[in-house]
Amino acid sequence: MLLRVDKVSISFGGARILSDVSFNVGASGVKGLIGPNGAGKTSLFNIITGFYRADGGNVSLSGKDLTCLRPHVVVRKGVARTFQKPSLAWHLTVFENVLLGSMNNRGLGLVVRRSRLKEWTEKCLHMCGVPPERWQEPMGRAGVLLVKKVEFARAISLSPMLILLDEICSGLSHDETDEMLDLLREYGDRNRCGVLFVEHDLRAVQKICRDVVVLDFGVVIYDGDIRGAFSDRRVVEAYIGGADA
Amino acid sequence: MATWNKGIFLNRNRYLLVALAGALALCLGPAFLDSYWLKFVSFLIISLIIACSWNLIGGYCGYFSFGHGLFFGIGAYTIAVAVLRFNVNPYAGMLLGGLVSAALALVMSPMLRLKGFNFALTTLALLEATKVIFPKWEFTRGMKSWDLGWSFPPLMSDTRYYLLLVLVFFLMLASHIVFLSSRLGFATAALKEDELMARGIGVNTMLTRVCAFVLSAFWVGVTGAIYAPMITYISSQAIFSLSWSVKPIIVSIFGGIGTLTGPILGGAILIFIDQLLWERFLEYHTLIYGVLLVAIVMFLPDGLLSHYDRVTSMFRRYPPAQEAKESHASAS
């Protein structure tokens, strides 16, 4: 088991955002994390990556405790993430944005040679299907698909064991979503890497995930095979409301 | 293909060579300059060192320090106490000035958890507090209500001070070039763009800020320690003057904040203009200088180098980054 989330809870003020959330993510394959707006998906991401400190519970990666570690330490332990609202260096070029990630990849060595760094960054951009003629494009001019690809390229430039993707397909058309999913699938097949996939587009979730965790009001209401999720009464109620609603 | 000489990827060797060539050219100064201009260029170099050092934390990391005059003053007082009270070698005293300033910056580093105006105001408050403490502290020759200050005997000739400043200027630039082309330099680039992003890609944001702050304070301290014996007398009111903190900010903004050459270009131009105005319009020079600064901020808000970038962008495929960002913002 790669990631183990065990009874994680967090409150903000008087509001309970997550209550005893527990699930596991395997060392390969894509696991979906879904739920209606406000279910606590991004808060959970923030806890796993050290941006928030949980009130209780534990998070561990390959048996190593991640709870209460700071974000940069979590990254060094092998967790990369993308953000719901793309968080990129808009003043820099496409290439430089991925380079920023490569520079923090400790696997390339403590003192990295520039040629090595350049090769690795180019490899990541190739893996994400970004053609060389777009590498010098200012990030601020990039379209949505390129922005999403660069975010993913920057995440994989850290050579993570686990990637947390927060709505990587939002804002993409059906064709673009399919292209993004193909990239994810191809990367997952080539590299042994677990993926936790938050997405509102359930079509995309069904296409790429084998397992899914469903959160509603900070509580896990389903954890299992994707095929069983949409026939589960609690999941249906969470999405479209109960009979008494 | 990626362009390695632009953007965040500094061509370290090329920049080091340019800095060395510049320093060697400056070394020829004593052969061509009379004592008045030699002194003027010495003061100019002092201003440039402080501006470049401020730019490391203010420009590259986005932390506006209004207290860099504090490190300058601490450097000056350190050499005064070391040389005049403990008979330390002057060169060792200069190094000590830098080290004490760097140590002070390290002690102040928890302040780097503050952001924006809070950080700026805290550094300003510390500077003002020091102005009150030093005249009351007997160790620094304070006399409760005022201080005696420190008078230096001549330690070396003006030419030697000049050459020493050129050496320090080169070493400061070299340290900045090495810093900016290292992992920490990339971290500052990420930090300046977006702190959330920087943390998300594994940057230790606090360590990055502390390293930049300490390195910045070190060179300002060394410069203060050279300045004190050069002008032969220091007092707390003059050495901790706010102008030592504000001038580097003005010249950095004028030249181009967060760039290696911006503060040098801005400092050289502004200080020459100031000098010319002082020579020709003694009575109104501050007024004219002030109006000029307002005009510069209005017409070149991003500094001279951004203007250069705008002109050269006409010959490039993509517009400069600022325009790109604006276009992205308007599109979304």
- State the major sheet of chain B: 2 strands, antiparallel
State the helicity of chain B in percent bands.
over 70%
- Indicate the structural class of chain B: mainly alpha
Low-confidence stretches of chain B: 1-6, 321-332
CATH homology group of the largest domain in chain A: P-loop containing nucleotide triphosphate hydrolases
What characteristics describe this protein?
heterodimer; A: 245 residues; alpha/beta; Rossmann fold; 2 domains; six-stranded mixed β-sheet; four-stranded antiparallel β-sheet; 10 strands; B: 332 residues; mainly alpha; two-stranded antiparallel ribbon; 2 strands; globular; disordered N terminus
Q: Can you characterise this structure?
A:
By secondary structure, chain A is of the alpha/beta class. Chain A folds into 2 domains: 1-78 and 160-245, Rossmann fold (3-Layer(aba) Sandwich); 87-159, no CATH class. Chain A is 36% helix and 25% strand. A 6-stranded mixed sheet of chain A has the order 6-7-8-3-9-10, sandwiched between helices. Chain A has a 4-stranded antiparallel sheet with strand order 2-1-4-5, covered by helices on one side. In chain A, a hairpin with a 2-residue loop joins β1 (3-12) and β2 (15-25). Chain A is globular. The N and C termini of chain A lie far apart (39 Å). The relative contact order of chain A is 0.18. By secondary structure, chain B is mainly α. Chain B has a domain at 12-241. Chain B has 16 helices and 2 strands. In chain B, strands 1-2 form a two-stranded antiparallel ribbon. In chain B, α3 packs across α12. Chain B is globular and about 50 Å long. In chain B, 42% of the residues are buried. The chains are: A alpha/beta (245), B mainly alpha (332). The interface between A and B is large, with 40 and 34 residues.
